[in-house]
Amino acid sequence: MDDRDFIEQMGAAFLAHRFKRASEALVDDIGALLRQRGLAIPGRGASTVLLLHREGPMGITEIAQRLRLSHPLIVRMTGQLVEAGLATTSSDPRDMRRSIVALTSSGHAQAASLEACNDDIERAMSEVFDEIDLDMLTGLTKLESALLARPISQRVLDESRTETMP
Known about the structure:
Layout: H1 6-9, H2 15-36, H3 46-55, E1 58-59, H4 60-67, H5 71-83, E2 87-92, E3 95-103, H6 105-131, H7 136-149, H8 152-164
Antiparallel strand pairs: 1-3, 2-3
Helix pairs in contact: 3-6, 4-5
């Protein structure tokens, strides 16, 4: 059996796969850290909790838009937060189809503790970036902007058009 990392060998074409692996590893590790610190916030729910803590109750669609995550993911995350006693959902009196998510008092208390934990995570991530000699946040911001301006699919299409021109 070959122990080499197949996806790593595939190069830049599989960058999204490697980002997802790294992201999942980070989220799982940070989730474990949060549990060690006595927080009931799921690692994948931290951004939702902080958004609701800082900006107040809002609808599922608005949360998804603000975090730039999928609606189904936010629905699942909200369910986990409700199950953990950190949030409640209620129907919007102006539009009964719309669910409003709000933190409970426990959710707000946990969010305050999460803010302090984030400072420690920020320092640890900064140490990693120094260790690998890469300003990952700036690079990622530039990558997101470049892909938003001109997605990979468009770049490949443009290149294939150039190659077929006489």
